[in-house]
Amino acid sequence: MRQLKEQEMKSVIEKLMKYIGDNVRKLIERTDHHYSFRLHNDRVFYAREDVITAAITVPRKKIISVGTCIGKFTKTGKFKLLITALPVIADYAQYKVWLKPSSEQSFLYGNHVTKGGLGRITENTPAYAGVVVYSMGDVPLGFGVSARSTADCRRAQPITNVLLHQSDVGEYIRSESELLT
User: What's the predicted TM-score (pTM) here?
Assistant: First the structure.
C-alpha cells in the first residue's frame, strides 16, 4: 500500500470533482480525523491515517482492503469510480436526482433514467454534470451523468433520457451472477 503519485492523485481528484465539486477539499481536509488516499493492487482506498498506520504492520500480500474503496485504475491508466465510493460522494454531492419508485428498479438494473421516472432534480444542474441518484426516501442508489440541464428537463418529452447510468448498488449482484455462470 502506497501513497498516490502526483498524476494518480490528479486523476482521482478530477473524477471526484465531477461529482462533488469543490467539496473535495472538505473530503481531504476533514476536522474529525486525518484521511488520505492510498493505492493497493490498482485500487484507490480512502482511509483514516491511524488505520493505514496499523495496516502497515500486515504484509502487503495479506491485505485485501483498508478503508473505503473509491475506485480503480484501469490497465490504460484511467481512473474509474466504483459503486463502493457512493457513501463518500453521497455526503458531499453537488447535484442530486431523486427517482420515482416506479423507475428505481429499472435504474438498479443498469438502465438510464427517462424524464418520466424523474422525481426531483437539484436546481441549476448543468448538462453532463455528475449526479448522485437517490430514491424518494433519500436512500442513495448510485450515480450517473445528467444528460440534460434542469431547464431542459422541464421541457423534455417523458421518454427522453435525462440521466445516463454510471453505477448503482445493484451492480454487485449483477457482477456476482456473471461469475457464477
Answer: 0.86
